């Protein structure tokens, strides 16, 4: 068999392998796309739950307690941050007023990062601000994407019909 024919056979085999890999990737991406609302609901639930747990730990000294002494009632900013974490975290979990709650959560964590952590060092890994930075960006993503189809507000809202102008 000539060398050119053997090389051509390897190329065809290689193209078929790539085609199979791309087909698998398309199936995977297609599945993710079909389940996008479900993944968004899981993401929203987990981020909201972690945030609410942080607020509960700070307010009620449970779940491992707060990072330091528990703030007294009305103390700025610790007590107010914990209340925001608990209330807004629950709203995000349920999917009620999700966008405003997520913006408030994101802003709270940005404040926490720049006021508490950033003065100690520039990078989050150096100043202990990883959680604040991650929560800030996670809630900003939720605010941009919205609550999704599996949110309580979406489920309880009456079906909307399009008018002639909207169509």
What does this structure look like?
It is a single chain. This protein is mostly helical. 71% of the residues lie in helices and 0% in strands. It has seven helices and no strands. It has helices at 3-34, 36-60, 78-94, 98-117, 124-127, 130-145, 152-156. It is globular, with a radius of gyration of 24 Å. The model has no long low-confidence stretch (mean pLDDT 84).
Features:
0% strand, 7 helices, single chain, globular, 167 residues, mainly alpha
Low-confidence stretches: none
Question: What proportion strand?
Answer: under 5%
Q: What is the oligomeric state here?
A: single chain
Major pleated sheet: none
Write the SSE topology:
Layout: H1 3-34, H2 36-60, H3 78-94, H4 98-117, H5 124-127, H6 130-145, H7 152-156
